[in-house]
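quick one, 118 residues, struct below
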Amino acid sequence: QVQLVESGGGLVQPGGSLGLSCAASGSTSTINSMGWYRRAPGKQRELVATATDGGSTNYADSVKGRFTISRDNAKNTVYLQMKNLQFEDTAVYYCNARSWRPWDNPYWGQGTQVTVSS
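---
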């Protein structure tokens, strides 16, 4: 099992910046990719960004050029640096970890609120 604990988030004005972090514990040797998803009010959960342990990254088109995902494999931690935040970035952001073992379900953090408001 893997446990994910998120930190960061909060309230920011449009155009502002915010950072999220997510620390994994437990069976971290099974983790392949880590990333972030978000769920805005009234919408389905969507991919924000992912990063594999090999360094490959993937971003949603809506955040490319504004968000940066990074991982510290030694600390089993993934970060999301968000810049130029917009109203539509308001959502609950969830940390995600996926195992290289196909029989493992994905792991999720508890979620952290990001609110962009003037």
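The chain has a mean pLDDT of 95.
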